Amino acid sequence: MNFLSDNAAAACPEVIDALVAANVASPRAYDGDAWSARLDGVFGDWFGHACTVFPVSTGTAANALALAAMVPPWGAVVCHADAHIHVDECGAPEFYTGGAKLLLAAGPHGKLTPAGIDAALGGHRGDVHQVQPRVLSLTQATESGTVYTPAELAALGEHARAKGWRVHLDGARFANALVHLGCHPGDISWRAGVAALSLGTIKNGGLSAEAVVVFDEEIAADLRFRRKRAGQMPSKGRFQAAQLLAMIETGAWARNAAAANAGATRLAQAAPQRLLAPVEANELFVNLGPHGGAALRAQGFDFYDWGAAGSGEARLVVAWDTPPAQIDALAAALAALA
Amino acid sequence: MNFLSDNAAAACPEVIDALVAANVASPRAYDGDAWSARLDGVFGDWFGHACTVFPVSTGTAANALALAAMVPPWGAVVCHADAHIHVDECGAPEFYTGGAKLLLAAGPHGKLTPAGIDAALGGHRGDVHQVQPRVLSLTQATESGTVYTPAELAALGEHARAKGWRVHLDGARFANALVHLGCHPGDISWRAGVAALSLGTIKNGGLSAEAVVVFDEEIAADLRFRRKRAGQMPSKGRFQAAQLLAMIETGAWARNAAAANAGATRLAQAAPQRLLAPVEANELFVNLGPHGGAALRAQGFDFYDWGAAGSGEARLVVAWDTPPAQIDALAAALAALA
Amino acid sequence: MNFLSDNAAAACPEVIDALVAANVASPRAYDGDAWSARLDGVFGDWFGHACTVFPVSTGTAANALALAAMVPPWGAVVCHADAHIHVDECGAPEFYTGGAKLLLAAGPHGKLTPAGIDAALGGHRGDVHQVQPRVLSLTQATESGTVYTPAELAALGEHARAKGWRVHLDGARFANALVHLGCHPGDISWRAGVAALSLGTIKNGGLSAEAVVVFDEEIAADLRFRRKRAGQMPSKGRFQAAQLLAMIETGAWARNAAAANAGATRLAQAAPQRLLAPVEANELFVNLGPHGGAALRAQGFDFYDWGAAGSGEARLVVAWDTPPAQIDALAAALAALA
Amino acid sequence: MNFLSDNAAAACPEVIDALVAANVASPRAYDGDAWSARLDGVFGDWFGHACTVFPVSTGTAANALALAAMVPPWGAVVCHADAHIHVDECGAPEFYTGGAKLLLAAGPHGKLTPAGIDAALGGHRGDVHQVQPRVLSLTQATESGTVYTPAELAALGEHARAKGWRVHLDGARFANALVHLGCHPGDISWRAGVAALSLGTIKNGGLSAEAVVVFDEEIAADLRFRRKRAGQMPSKGRFQAAQLLAMIETGAWARNAAAANAGATRLAQAAPQRLLAPVEANELFVNLGPHGGAALRAQGFDFYDWGAAGSGEARLVVAWDTPPAQIDALAAALAALA
């Protein structure tokens, strides 16, 4: 029973159907097809703001491309110390940006705050001997399974703008956050000052398409060339566009995220005393105690240890297609742990 | 009737079937699945040589990643002046390599020769004031629709090795070349000294997977990290691996290439006097005369002009799924041109 | 007798004196000293236009830094096929720019023309599959020892601006050009649309300081950080600033260039029939015939062969401090060649 | 009275004399002169080990070039959180390496220890999703004015080698460390496993030359081209070589460092209770209390605050040429602080 991650789940039927439907003979290549032509409009309507949509093949590419179009090589990206862009992308942001630095800030439960940012940069100078922060990169839902409220994001956006920084949002689990909040997509993107969003679909039931959604034309003009140059412009672009359209137009994004979130909530309710952070999306971070991990694995549950070796900490992730029976079984097993 | 390119054709049924079959719930992510695990073995058997296979999402990414793992930033890649890596990748090789140069050589019908390479580098010095050639990049089939024979490739490989260069092969249309030659895949890759091959499937009936096939462990060890860092390691890696396996294991590579090549040959036979280069794969480069292009377009044929404006030159490409009736129609129209 | 180059000549007394005068105890580091503080003003007065001056240690650094601040990584720099930035800088422009391409144009005697530029870019497209020209880089005096007139430069500048390109000038021998023309420094820089100038002093009698002179504040704001990041901001900045100031304020630039130019003219007059290009600065490109080079070397003259092996072509360079007796000797030897 | 830094002090007479002596007419350019030719031999004798010496114009260039030749772009450099390469070089290491990361470790008084390194990398994984440490960069003397003993360095070197890492030493104040230890230069370089050393002379009485000293031929072969490509190969290379030779051959390195160290020791003895770290080179880090800084400045002493605002912490640096009377005055003032 797989609670390792949501990133290898099946693709949902809506996406498979869309791929098959897009498998027509020889339209124009790259973004010259009818699916690609509809992207900006469909996403613009969904977000309630004009935008440019750049399909890419991975979340790492989405993040790195977006950042590269937002920060000069001598600049810096401020992010949480747990941010995926820092921890799990093999330096892709540094590669794509031409060597910009990530400056790490801390904050509880994966969330940054204006005060935490200021503290992290307390001694940072504006002279030429130091890289200069130009972008704030936030993750929604966070790497700790929590979700920024629109007000929290807006405050961070305002804080960034006051410093002349642009805001990037890593939305690998944007749908999960949106379902949790029940708000409008614009409330946690452009209305909060986000200029570019890495919008994930793969963890949300997609197959091979993520999107960079850009709300700023200057960034989009630059990103257009960087995407091709990065080898992220497939000749059969309709297959990416069709996946992205299907997620939005069929509402799969919401159904899939709701299912995953509900599963995580179900697990959280079974072991509230073990939670290391509020469960607001589809991930749980728990302390299983010294023997809990082994006990669960002995019952067939698969998941990642987290935190320091021997800490007893673990991460449990529910995907859109995790069988309810497996969720029930894990909930029971968690409740039964000594 | 679309003769623009083979790069937007439909995906073949074998690939669609493989994608659907790979759509199972939650195996291990990245390359931890059963499909990815079989890649090196299946391709190793096909090539008759141990290799490491890296799936990527575009041919540009395949080329740029391979080159980056083969050349230092202060090095140079020798290639044909018409090479895709120079002309159509928005500087991806320069980006991925950290700014290595492409040094351009000439040769008839898109083919390089040892003498042509030496001529191009005649005045090149080995001192620190100039970038140093370290890689020879060839294209098979070439950008002119011709095909290197195994003997030609072997001579080029030997020429490169004698200078201490590695050999890269851009095989966006490798299958078309292989079908034309009727030889073993190893004859135009590792046996000719090729260390890394960009093996295209997308123009050959694939959907979204190309491969870098590496015959040199040192290159593979480096490329492994560069691929992730480039955002070219999808979490649902099985969907790429399954496509690549399907192309080889079902023999689709050969059927599709044979169909495309045969169509091009059919067209060539209809207008032999118009050919600018031998037709050895699935592309024709023709001179349609001052009015021929317009005449064909008036009959509903779509294709790209080529060469200098007003030259009357054009490119006609046949895809694996170009309808035979359309090929017949174009053959007739070509034959009927004044 | 050394006619190899002007790039290893002695430093002139004005520069040595300035270095010694700047050797005071512990002013502020970097650019916090009194010498550095005067740079922008002194050069601004000289050029007749506000500018920002960035001292650097080599001409290669000057060129590469200037270009990096002017072109995006997916952009291109149009330059002459003989340009130093292409031929003799080991890919420094590609390194500093993050992999921008140099697009090569041709023109007689090392000079570009609007028509030559357009011809070179005839087939270049504006789509995302190709790098986009954003900078025109010219060399004054050229790599062939010729000099653009103010009118020629202005026409090129206008041609570039009409395309939305910025103009960079490699002025490794700017002083030689200026003395030849007898015009105002502004006439061959900002008045002709030059946004950034690599102003050489080292070939003109300097010791270790070149300057990037920037007439555009946006470029300067970016270059400031790139310079430090490149390791081109010495802590004892006054020693670079003092050299640059000395060259301008003492008039050494003009005296030294005049001496070198006069020597070259003297040689040119001795063998007018051998010239491959007009001699307008301090370099001669000559054809010495099949045995001329050996004959001169047998008499103790040292110089570089040029052009293709066996062509009989050679380059003769006069430095600011080449002894007049040696120039006389070479003039006589040239005249006496069969 | 300037205790800001040693990095803007005068150049010592030995260096000025060497520059003047090297100001001869037109030897061969770049490294073709007699001074450059002696570098490897003189430094090899001094270190007791064959080495390749690359003169550069700044310490930042020395560090960044050395690291670029030692780490792949997807690699990481482990260094102290206070390291100059992380804090004060505007991202030069990231630029030169093509985006490698710096991974920060902690340790008291600016020193790393094997245990501190292991703690910092406790959770670091070897998979492709994370950058891979390949270099350990240490600073000698450290950023806290302390000095690694040969045994400490050897233990760190052994620790690094056991992991397959190379060792880089930032020796901006190498001479100060060497004088403090009274050991052989080899004891704190190659004997401790250092493969490449940034050897500073500028803070030690030099004018404009630092050196990268490489004890590993593979690194040197790569660095040779990177140096030119970085714009760090001056045409009048003899002026850099002459400075480096003068520092070693006249013994100025030792005299100058001894003078600076002695001054710092004198100050330390005047206020031992204020020291934040042992004073082992020419820098003091002190806590001046809430009003001490202002009191000293009122008496005409200039220096940098250090640490957090309001902490009362300050840095006092003695240069080779700081007037003894000023040192006496500061010592008295320190002793007299409440």
TrEMBL record, chains A, B, C, D:
GO molecular function, one term: lyase activity
Keyword list, A-Z: Pyridoxal phosphate
Signal peptide: none
Names of the cofactor(s): pyridoxal 5'-phosphate
Gene3D superfamilies: Aspartate Aminotransferase, domain 1, Type I PLP-dependent aspartate aminotransferase-like (Major domain)
Swiss-Prot/TrEMBL GO biological process terms: amino acid metabolic process
Chain ranges of the Aromatic amino acid beta-eliminating lyase/threonine aldolase domain: 2-284
Pfam family for this entry, one: Beta_elim_lyase
SUPFAM superfamilies xrefs: PLP-dependent transferases
Subunit structure as annotated in this protein's UniProt entry: Homotetramer.
Recorded family membership: Belongs to the threonine aldolase family.
Name of the protein: Low specificity L-threonine aldolase
Species, as recorded: Glacieibacterium frigidum
